[in-house]
Amino acid sequence: MSSLMLVLLMLVLGSLMLQGISIQHQARLSQGSLEKLVLRDSMDAESLLEWGRVFTWPLLPVVQCQTLSGFSGRVCLRLFTDGTALLIASCREQTRWQTATVNGNSLLFDRNGWSDFCPRKETLQCQNP
Question: Can you tell me the distance from the alpha carbon of 9 to that of 24, in angstroms, rounded to the nearest whole number?
């Protein structure tokens, strides 16, 4: 009888361990899926920003946006009265910014590349319209 009880106890403990491992596995699988989504959105935002850099933007209106097929986000350009501009690319929760200056009828984007934080003092100027 005692050996039967020992076998049943081992089965119960094994079952509890497998259930715990299954819960951990599901949690890590969910975390991996979320990380994959964030990385994809980040890459899409960077791709949209690069596309916005080569797009020929008119200098009016002062706030304008474009979408690109195949991407869930959009890229917007804000022109400021001091002769600077800000390119904003957003894809869900991921946003990238690129500063530029207006030179005649064209935009000259800064060589420093994109930023993942707002480069302007006024945070409202960094939001996608």
Answer: 23
